[in-house]
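Lab notebook page, bench 4
Experiment: in silico fold of construct C2
Operator: M.H.
Input chain length: 209 residues
Purpose: comparison with the prior construct
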Amino acid sequence: MKKLFLLSAILSLCTYAAFAADTIKIGLLAPITGSYASEGQGMKQVLELLAADVNAKGGILGKQVAVITEDDGSDPRTAALAANKLISQGVVAVIGTYGSSVTEPTQGILDESGIVQIANGATAIRLTEKGLKMFFRTCPRDDEQAKVAAQTIANLGYKKIAILHDNSTYAKGLAEETRGLLQKQPGAQIVFFDALTPGERDYSTILTK
């Protein structure tokens, strides 16, 4: 029901464009290939099922919904090109993409074209602090997620805390936000804060530290 409401809300913002077209085209920016292909494939399947359900009930504004998918491959440059491709195909709104560093280069492109964008896996704080009128997201920002992490650690009573992240935009941002909150808690001590290199075969050195 939440997803159905979300799709309807997107379309309500694009009424004029929708009436001018034979179908209502919703763009999906997703990592269909690449390191997050499983997430991208899931996004595609969910949106297509949702569109089919809406169409079976008569569509929206008397028109059928068509999902137009572009693969960003979890790559910022590819994502920017994919955003332009969706614009050229006449989409009225875009869902995606997954990951802050991949989402960021698509923001300005879509906003300048007056196209609503709802990211579903981008958590970096800066994305919404830009004040772009057409950008929204459905996942909590890093600072909100960090509040939960820090509170959980505090509730468990831990005092000496090690934070290890993988240096990705998401992990690093969340780790830094969590560290900042923990440092404000009485008695909490961050004894280790560092990054590992994903894909290594042996993590014994960093674990020993």
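Observations: The CA atoms of residues 95 and 101 lie 16 Å apart. The chain has a mean pLDDT of 90.
Next step: discuss at group meeting.
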